[in-house]
Design goal:
Chain lengths: ~150, ~150
């Protein structure tokens, strides 16, 4: 492969170097106000900062957030272009990321206290299904909250 | 909670009913040609169909794809509105989903044989990092492929 590099940087192989099968690694969304986004995902939803990459040549930063390690469950990348002005636009294609929460009531209370925009309050969308709510993150991305513990 | 339902449907609690901590469950994108999308993700990238939900009252179908079970790594939801006409639009905000592949050469060969649009051929974006490529799925969503096995 012509992609070989001379120098091996283990920090850039956060997903491992010897995986035997493919894996869905992360979803990436671009955010305007990095601090607001991090407050929402870390303070509001309890995600952990797994890693941060500042790429000075591209004047951009990527932050990886998850609820475990890089290889334990889904990961979200927030990308921040240092020089980007104004909000990003949302097309009609991309939907949401879904986060499973054991305690929907506590999560909603926390998000409301932070001033999060709530678009659909918790309810079972389908009879017999889990409670589902929709909120917006600071950049307007839809976040689906799905209860993962039967109340 | 006012979201309680009379009837419990275990099929609708695919992520479990007793999670003790939150989890990133899936990312959802809307697709126009369901069959083409499934060919790309299942035949092209080797994802497995974890579940399919036809919601007749909303005239929509959701399909969940992953490389393991619902709780083993990230999951992608493809949503298909039966009556939707024309392509979905892509804003400037949503970026991509990233899939880790052990064998970049084999994956690229497979995708090329299927006529997949390749936007960035495999190369190490950062010296010492893994080979990275970008392709487009049939709906034009960017898919980042990241090599997860050192060649």
């Amino acid at each position: 492969m012509n992609s070989a590099t001379d120098e091996f940087n283990p920090r850039l192989w956060v997903w491992g170097t010897n995986a035997s099968k493919p894996r869905l690694l992360h979803s990436m969304v671009r955010v305007k106000d990095f601090d607001a986004a991090i407050r929402f995902y870390v303070d509001g939803l309890g995600m952990e900062m797994l890693g941060r990459f500042d790429i000075t040549t591209r004047r951009s930063t990527g932050v990886f957030l998850g609820f475990g390690d890089y290889d334990a469950g889904g990961v979200l990348e927030l990308a921040h272009k240092w020089d980007h002005e104004g909000p990003y636009t949302h097309g009609t294609g991309y939907g949401h990321i879904a986060i499973g929460v054991p305690d929907m009531t506590a999560t909603m209370a926390k998000l409301e206290s932070m001033g999060t925009e709530i678009t659909v309050r918790p309810k079972a969308l389908i009879p017999g299904g889990p409670a589902v709510a929709f909120v917006k993150d600071p950049d307007g991305y839809e976040i689906e909250l799905i209860q993962t513990k039967r109340s």
